[in-house]
Amino acid sequence: MALQVMTARDFRVRPGAVWRTLKRTGRLMVTSRGRPLALVTDIEGRDVEEELQAANLARLTLAVSRLREQARRSGANRMTMQEIDREIRAVRRKR
């Protein structure tokens, strides 16, 4: 099922629609001025801490993937340990 989208205004003034959408699809993207603002997920009947851990793990995994891609594009993924150590020393000297 496609991700349902709702404007921030509708999210605020139509709470019934929010709950119906969450019951039906399990998730909802809230937008403001056409840009994604938040993802809302239904966790009814599930462990909140477990859901938060899963969301945090997903965000961490995405951040690591983005860092790896950035390193690949810049060539930093091919640096030797000596080059890395030199970079660290240079940054520390500037402090």
Descriptive account of the structure:
The chain has 95 residues and is of the alpha+beta class. It has 2 domains: 42 residues, 3-Layer(aba) Sandwich (YefM-like fold), CATH 3.40.1620.10; 50 residues. Helices cover 61% and strands 18% of the residues. The chain has a 3-stranded mixed β-sheet. A hairpin with a 2-residue loop joins strand 2 and strand 3. The longest helix is centred in the middle third of the chain and has 27 residues. The radius of gyration is 21 Å and the shape is elongated. The chain starts with a strand and ends with a helix. The model has no long low-confidence stretch (mean pLDDT 94).
Classify the oligomer: single chain
Spatial strand sequence of the major β-sheet: 1-2-3
Report the major sheet.
3 strands, mixed
What's the Cα radius of gyration? Answer: 21 Å
How many structural domains in the coordinates?
2
The pLDDT mean sits at 94
> What is the 3D shape?
elongated
What count of helical segments does DSSP give? Answer: 4
Structural class: alpha+beta
Residue stretches low in confidence (pLDDT < 50, at least 5 long) are none
- Strand tally, please? 3
Distance between the termini: 51 Å
Strand content: 15-25%
N-to-C order of helices and strands: EHHEEHH
